[in-house]
Amino acid sequence: MRSWSVVVPAKRLGVAKTRLRPLTAARPDAEEAHRELVLALLADTVAAALACTVVDTLVVVTDDPAAAAVVTELGARVVADEPDRGLNPALEHGVRSAPGPAVAALSSDLPAVRADELAAALDAAAGTARAFVADAQGTGTTLLTAVDVPLRPRFGAGSAEAHLTSGAVALAGSWPGLVRDVDTEADLRAALLLGGGPRTTAVVARLAG
Ligand SMILES: Nc1nc2c(ncn2[C@@H]2O[C@H](COP(=O)(O)OP(=O)(O)OP(=O)(O)O)[C@@H](O)[C@H]2O)c(=O)[nH]1
Ligand SMILES: C=C(OP(=O)(O)O)C(=O)O
Q: Is residue 127 part of a domain?
């Protein structure tokens, strides 16, 4: 079984996940509630990845002090969000401090991801130079892997197509939590129906109460 380094990107909580803002906008504590929700998504994702038997090192790329504190406590390494030129340069920066030869970039908004499905996807990727898992819509990417070659991340709108065009192999499997990234309120509902992680479930229950 291969030991993977997994890199997870996380913007500052207050500017991340703006499409989830409507969930908290009407509250008097909207700012704090939004940050808590974004942090819960990240923490559930990181906790599942750290519980994955084939993950050796987990690097979170972030400049957010609260996010850094929580993921450090969970067992992740934190590196600064450099060079401050967006998601893909941040991932390449994270990869530089991640031991090879098997590295992966994982979205930070996967509250329903389970350690065993991540392990299955990484096992499926182990024999391939570059591979990816598309999101539930089929347009985005939740996991990109590289073994012995540069990661060359192409995250962003239409990233599944961009990763395919760049030569990465599309992996398919029964990984409902791994593909269920949370961009909108509907995505969040879908993730919770699958069985959301404990932090996201608790924050959503508190927001509802
Ligand atoms: N470290 C780092 N993470 C980033 C950066 N840009 C995006 N991310 C993270 O990458 C993940 C996927 O990005 P998106 O789903 O587009 O997230 P987002 O930009 O926060 O969401 P919206 O504002 O709703 O578009 C999120 O967890 C972001 O926090 C960046 O410049 N640096
Ligand atoms: C950045 C991406 O995520 P999202 O679709 O969550 O914006 C992506 O899928 O490449």
A: yes
- Which amino acids bring their CB within 6 angstroms of ligand 1? 9-11, 16-19, 61-62, 81, 86-87, 90, 107-109, 183
Q: Could you tell me which residues are annotated as the binding site?
A: 141, 156, 159
Q: From first to last of the 209 residues of the chain, give the pLDDT tens digit.
A: 579 999 999 999 999 999 999 999 999 999 999 999 999 999 999 999 999 999 999 999 999 999 999 999 999 999 999 999 999 999 999 999 999 899 999 999 999 999 999 999 999 999 999 999 999 999 999 999 999 999 999 999 999 999 999 999 999 999 999 999 999 999 999 999 999 999 999 999 999 87
Q: Assess if residue 9 is contained within a domain.
A: yes
Binding residues for phosphoenolpyruvate, by number, are 141, 156, 159
Q: Measure the CA dihedral 77/21/185/29, to 10°.
A: 90
Residue ranges making up the domain that contains 94: 4-203
Residue nearest to atom 14 of ligand 1 (CA): 17
Domain CATH number, residue 110? 3.90.550.10
Distance CA(171)–CA(82), nearest Å, equals 29
Q: Write down the ipTM of this complex.
A: 0.95
C-alpha to C-alpha distance for 143 and 180, rounded to whole angstroms: 11
In a domain, 152, yes or no: yes
Residue with CA at minimum distance from ligand 2 atom 9: 140
Number of structural domains the chain divides into = 1
Question: What DSSP designation does 171 have?
Answer: P
